């Protein structure tokens, strides 16, 4: 009987404030879509980092002829200096950090250059002597680049030590900032949704003040009286969260899986499984916000 009464009260409240309920659903849907998009963007950044950082290398460029660097004062790197660098790479200090070192001669660098810029007229003017020999070092943990750089930088025969991660850091910075902006916009929308839920619950409580007064007189508890109002907000917000999850799932399916994945097959992309991981979180956020907003509102408008 009590459950039937609560369900009937919820239905009455949703019908009486239908326009406000629809507004709550729409605002919650939009705000949680932004939240979900920010979450998917962070997952995408994580996938790119795991994939690209695992492939990047540390490049140790050796002194070419005519370099102005102090450590290159003796001219082009000598075989003895190259052997000394090999010894450092095999030392107990660096060997545990290195997965695989590779030495690229000037001739090999020239062949790679010509293949990469094949057909470019200006590239024909470059000769082998314009190239630099280098060590290409793949690290076990790309985050520990500083250890290798500190040991090799400034060594005789070494002109510079560069980490290829710098190529991607600017991209990740843009993606992270876009994610922060999305979260900020989503937070504003969630505040709007919370305020709208508060107004909806207030109107519903005022429209049924006579019924709640009678329930007080017959000894109904606070929880029993307030529960229909709380569930109204939670249901409206929950529907918005489900719509947001469904919208993200469709967006990822048609825009990422069916279209973008066919155009860009060299990077790992987010998928529908990632949306399924985020969707329960969106639903939890919606329900918690609705319940908190309902409790705060009802404490004022449901006093004895």
UniProtKB/TrEMBL annotation:
State where the protein is found. Cell membrane
Q: Where is the FtsX extracellular domain?
A: 56-161
Q: Which InterPro entries match?
A: ABC3_permease_C, FtsX, FtsX_actino, FtsX_ECD
- The highest taxon in the source lineage is Bacteria
Q: Name one Pfam family in it.
A: FtsX_ECD
Q: How does it sit in the membrane?
A: Multi-pass membrane protein
The ABC3 transporter permease C-terminal domain sits at 185-300
User: Which spans are transmembrane here?
Assistant: 21-43, 178-203, 223-250, 275-298
Q: What is its main location?
A: membrane
Keyword line: Cell cycle, Cell division, Cell membrane, Membrane, Transmembrane, Transmembrane helix
- Quaternary state and partners of this protein? Forms a membrane-associated complex with FtsE.
Q: Which family does it belong to?
A: Belongs to the ABC-4 integral membrane protein family. FtsX subfamily.
What's the protein name?
A: Cell division protein FtsX
User: Where is the organism placed in the taxonomic lineage, from the top?
Assistant: Bacteria, Bacillati, Actinomycetota, Actinomycetes, Micrococcales
């Amino acid at each position: 009987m009590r459950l039937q009464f609560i369900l009937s009260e919820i239905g009455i409240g949703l019908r009486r404030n239908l326009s406000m309920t629809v507004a709550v659903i729409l605002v919650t849907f939009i705000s949680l879509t932004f939240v979900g998009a920010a979450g998917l963007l962070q997952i995408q950044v994580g996938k790119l980092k795991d994939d690209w950082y695992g492939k990047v290398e540390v490049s140790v460029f050796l002194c070419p002829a005519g370099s102005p660097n102090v450590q290159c004062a003796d001219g082009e790197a000598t075989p003895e200096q190259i052997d000394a660098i090999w010894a450092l790479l095999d030392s107990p200090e660096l060997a545990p950090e290195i997965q695989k070192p590779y030495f690229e001669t000037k001739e090999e660098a020239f062949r790679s250059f010509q293949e990469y810029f094949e057909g470019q007229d200006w590239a024909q003017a470059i000769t082998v002597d314009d190239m630099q020999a280098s060590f290409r070092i793949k690290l076990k943990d790309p985050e520990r680049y500083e250890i290798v750089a500190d040991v090799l930088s400034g060594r005789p025969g070494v002109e510079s030590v560069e980490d290829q991660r710098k190529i991607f850091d600017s991209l990740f910075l843009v993606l992270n900032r876009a994610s922060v902006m999305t979260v900020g916009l989503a937070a504003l929308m969630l505040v709007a949704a919370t305020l709208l839920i508060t107004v909806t619950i207030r109107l519903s409580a005022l429209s049924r003040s006579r019924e709640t007064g009678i329930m007080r007189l017959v000894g109904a508890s606070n929880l029993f009286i307030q529960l229909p109002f709380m569930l109204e907000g939670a249901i409206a917000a929950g529907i918005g969260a489900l719509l947001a999850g469904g919208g993200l799932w469709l967006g990822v399916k048609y825009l990422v899986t069916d279209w973008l994945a066919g155009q860009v097959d060299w990077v790992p992309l987010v998928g529908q499984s990632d949306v399924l991981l985020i969707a329960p979180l969106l639903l939890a956020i919606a329900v918690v916000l609705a319940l908190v907003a309902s409790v705060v509102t009802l404490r004022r408008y449901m006093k004895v």
